[in-house]
Specification:
By secondary structure, the protein is α/β, with parallel strands linked by helices. Helices cover 34% and strands 23% of the residues. Helix 2 crosses helix 12. The protein is globular.
């Protein structure tokens, strides 16, 4: 089969190589899946760079989220077990970790449902206890993680403010349902949030960016507000002033969704059931901006790493054939 492999750490476009490798043989207690679609996540870029919290041995295949087909024809969602990730034609997985792909979503949409929407659901509901009528501020609202949070916020009855970079991403955020869109390149985030909320600030702030985004969040969070720290796509990890959190009476909560897979797997399955119901109602639907063949995976991962994409970019192996190089 064909699979992308990383033999040394670096930028995705430079270190990912499409190779012919043996089909994976499932060991005891594992199943083999045909990859129908593999969603690209920012952690895939971090894996290539050697900067992710999990560092698989070299060489490895990135791709942490797929929609696959079992040998008996069922469509499922799962996280392939590294070092044999999803940017390949076949993977192996733990059968206990397989979740049914929602009928309301096609393969690419189903592949993009798991990590981003689970992260959003746990962040907004379990960690921040978002309530109907509250104001939710989402940084990088047109991106993969942010777009999921926007849809989940609207489904929860919140007023959603989206922060984006540039006019094209602003248009996407509006289409997603944001009640107000702030372009960080031209607008003052803090002033815009204060104006929109009558000076009160945002009740919940969803931050997958860090850096300047977090610093703005601390200035426009409401009394008893909650800042949910999801990631650091900016590459800058802020050092929060805890005296500021004390004086303004707000909470800073972290979310590492992957821990729930080991600490509380039942909660992950319950969340998937809730997401499946929302998808069936049309309340959520992953925004797929591009479906690329397997041969174009490295370039697509680089685009996600560079922050130039909107929504989700998904690798669909059946969309084309690539020659090994």
């Amino acid at each position: 089969m064909k699979a992308w492999r990383v033999h040394e750490n670096g930028e995705p476009r430079e270190v990912m190589r499409l190779e012919e490798v043996p089909d994976p043989e499932p060991g005891e207690g594992r199943v083999r899946l045909k990859v129908l679609a593999a969603n690209i996540n920012f952690p895939d870029a971090l894996l290539c760079r050697g900067q992710y919290q999990v560092r698989p041995p070299l060489p490895f295949t990135p791709g942490v989220e797929i929609c696959g087909e079992t040998e008996d024809g069922r469509r499922v969602i799962t996280n392939p077990e590294l070092p044999n990730g999803g940017f390949a034609e076949y993977v192996t997985a733990d059968p206990a970790a397989l979740l049914p792909a929602p009928d309301a979503l096609d393969d690419a949409e189903a592949a993009a449902l798991h990590i981003g929407y689970q992260t959003g659901w746990f962040g907004l509901h379990r960690r921040a206890a978002l309530r109907a009528g509250e104001t939710l501020l989402v940084h990088a609202a047109a991106g993969g993680v942010g777009s999921a949070a926007v849809q989940l916020g609207k489904a929860a009855g919140a007023t959603v403010i989206g922060v984006v970079g540039g006019a094209e991403k602003a248009a996407v955020a509006r289409e997603l349902g944001c009640d107000l869109v702030i372009d960080r390149r031209t607008d003052d985030i803090v002033a815009a949030v204060k104006e929109a909320t009558g000076g009160r600030g945002a009740d919940v702030i969803y931050d997958p960016v860090g850096g300047d985004a977090y610093r703005a969040s601390a200035k426009c969070v409401a009394f008893e507000g909650r800042i949910v720290v999801v990631g650091f796509a900016s590459g800058s990890i802020p050092s929060p002033a805890l005296n500021h959190a004390l004086v303004k009476n707000y909470s800073i909560v972290g979310l590492h969704w992957g821990l729930y897979n080991t600490k509380d797997p039942a909660a992950v399955r319950a969340c998937h059931e809730a997401l499946t119901e929302l998808a069936a109602k049309g309340a959520i639907k992953p925004l797929i901006s591009d479906r690329v063949p397997l041969a174009e995976a490295a370039a697509a991962v680089q685009r996600v790493a560079d922050g130039t994409t909107t929504g989700r970019v998904v690798v669909v192996p059946a969309a084309g054939e690539g020659a090994a190089r």
